[in-house]
Design brief:
Oligomer: single chain
Strand content: 25-35%
Distance between the termini: 26 Å
Number of helices: 3
Radius of gyration: 13 Å
Strand order of the largest sheet: 1-2-3-4-5
Length: 108
């Protein structure tokens, strides 16, 4: 079991969160609290980098949906970046690949 780590960053387009570990029942509240605390402005882009997520259950998906709703309520958009293949499969099976916007990770 890997504890969840959320590292904030700022980009010219808006805030970014790098998520590492397991996004599950025990840890998803931390992501929800972190995203709810973000002050987003219309036109900003919230980037959630999932490259370090090893596992995600339904509560993790719910936290990501809540982050998307938070961004939309502020007039901002959200993108999931560097989503691992195992998570892409979950998003595809649940139809959430039609809800979330994905983009490949930035080169290191």
């Amino acid at each position: 079991m890997s504890p969840l780590e959320i590292t904030p960053d700022a980009t010219p387009a808006g805030p970014a969160l790098h998520v590492v570990g397991e996004l599950d029942y025990a840890s998803s509240a931390a992501l929800s609290l972190r995203t709810e605390a973000l002050r987003l402005s219309p036109g900003q882009l919230l980037v959630v980098d999932l490259s370090g997520v090893e596992f995600c259950d339904s509560t993790g998906i719910t936290a990501l949906l809540a982050a998307r709703r938070h961004a939309q309520a502020a007039g901002a958009t959200m993108v999931l970046e560097a989503v691992p293949t195992h998570l892409i499969r979950i998003f595809t099976l649940t139809g959430l690949d039609q809800v979330f916007t994905f983009r490949p990770g930035e080169p290191a």
